[in-house]
Design goal:
Elements (H helix, E strand, L loop, with lengths): L2 E2 L3 E5 L5 H8 L2 H6 L8 H19 L3 E6 L4 E9 L7 E7 L8 H15 L5 E7 L3 H9 L3 E6 L8 E7 L1 H7 L1
Length: 176
């Protein structure tokens, strides 16, 4: 399913996005804050999409979305909902090519996906993880309504990550 905001389309990432995914995965911010994925060509990106992204859509109904600007159909970034080992809930993540940063696109896309997560997929809680030096992601998670919940180290990793969480607002209001 494709989701729409005022300026954006959120389209499930598919093998057609391989060139874009290769470029994004090798951008300086991705490498610094998210990490090496060993995807160096469109062919490797296509394989990554096929083996890592598509199965989650098939199994859960949600996954990684390519963010497209409606005004010119440019692929700018990704925003996704991921089941990650070691996290207490579904992870919301976002990444944009540098030329599209700091324009409100990440907030717009993540806010839409947060809404879909709670309203359509009936998730009760979301997590957002980020490196301790990624101040922009931390700021965005707080702006989206997440709360800092401490640090975490994912299984098989060594990096300490900051973990932010958010409970479905409708559950909070029904508890009062």
């Amino acid at each position: 399913m494709i989701y729409e905001t005022k300026r954006l389309l959120l389209k499930p990432t598919s093998e057609d996005d391989a060139r874009f995914i290769c470029k994004l995965f090798n951008s300086p911010a991705w490498l610094k804050f998210i990490g090496e994925r060993k995807v160096y060509s469109p062919t490797e990106a296509e394989q990554y999409i096929k083996t890592k992204m598509t199965p989650q859509f098939e199994n859960l109904g949600y996954g990684n979305y390519t963010i497209i600007r409606k005004s010119d159909n440019v692929k700018m970034g990704t925003c996704g909902l991921s089941d990650r080992k070691g996290l207490p809930c579904t992870d919301i993540g976002f990444a944009f090519l540098p030329e599209y940063g700091r324009k409100g696109y990440a907030h717009e896309a993540a806010n839409k996906l947060k809404e879909v997560a709670f309203n359509q997929f009936k998730l009760k809680e979301l997590c957002g993880i980020t490196t301790t030096d990624n101040k922009l992601s931390q700021k965005l998670l707080l702006k989206l309504g997440f709360h800092y919940n401490g640090t975490i180290v994912l299984p098989g990793e060594t990096n300490v990550l900051m973990c932010f969480t958010m409970t479905d607002p409708s559950l909070r209001s029904s508890e009062n």
